[in-house]
Amino acid sequence: MRSSDRLFMEVPIMISGADPTGKPFVEKTRALVLSRRGARIIAKQPLVPQQTLKLRCLKTARDTSVRVVGPIMGESEGCHYGIAFLEPNVNVWGIEFPVLDGTENPAGRLVLECTNCHTQEVSHLDVFELEVFLANQCLIRTCARCDKATLWIQSELRNEPAPAAAAIKAETKPRHSIQERKSPRITLKVKVCLRSAEFGDEVVLSVNVSKGGFRVVSQKDYPLGSTFEAALPYSPKAANIFTPARIVYKEGGIGGVPFAYGFCYIPSPLAPSLTGMQITQTR
Fold first, then answer.
1. What is each CA distance from 253 to 30, 249, 278, in whole angstroms?
2. Tens digit of pLDDT for each residue in 225-256?
3. Which one, of 127, 189, 140, lies nearest residue 163 by Cα?
4. Is 236 within the bounds of a domain?
5. Which of 85, 113, 140 is the C-terminal boundary of a domain?
6. What's the CA gap between 6 and 33, in Å, rounded?
7. Is the residue at 178 inside a domain?
């Protein structure tokens, strides 16, 4: 049940509390996935469900109380835990997350930063905003804090070179106009990361994007109807926002021909039901 986007971004944190014996502890560690109401963190200190902790984001120096939801997985560095904020009004990360109310249906999601006041926002872009950003690596948009139109760039890439033009350049093919399509589809090559517990991660290029979905080509044979977490656009050097998406169209895969997949974003819980959504496969 998503109330906000999940931002895959490592942030240094400090957690403190008491273990089951009452002995106090303090651990410097990091959050791995951020959201408006919680996070996934890693900790060497054993934590138990319903345990309350104090969390400080070392990036913003903001504190908040959290509840341990439970363990997710273990690794050599420690165990991953899900935590929930007990003070939802405290913006501990210093990043504005839009509330998912079921009406959102962007073509792409990015963490953008105002170059004037350095406010960071999880931004939902339509197909045309996404195309402008990929072409220029920036957008002019209104900043609520500055109360004027300012220049916005991708937050984590301001000190990095822009991606190679070949990876972001739109194809110069005829496009459908807004009048011709209810949801405009733009022919656009941009990196997409498909993530699945069953199939792992794969980075592919989109063929086109539209409001609510995208089309990609892959050598892998995924079952029709499979669900993934998808980040569009994707950069290994940036904070990436993954959102659920389902394969609703599949073709190809014969004689060495790659598979073509059509993905539809899965709306947040308050969105209309997906019942009746057409799923097709073409060979």
1. 42, 13, 21
2. 999 999 988 988 778 888 889 999 998 877 77
3. 189
4. yes
5. 85
6. 6
7. no
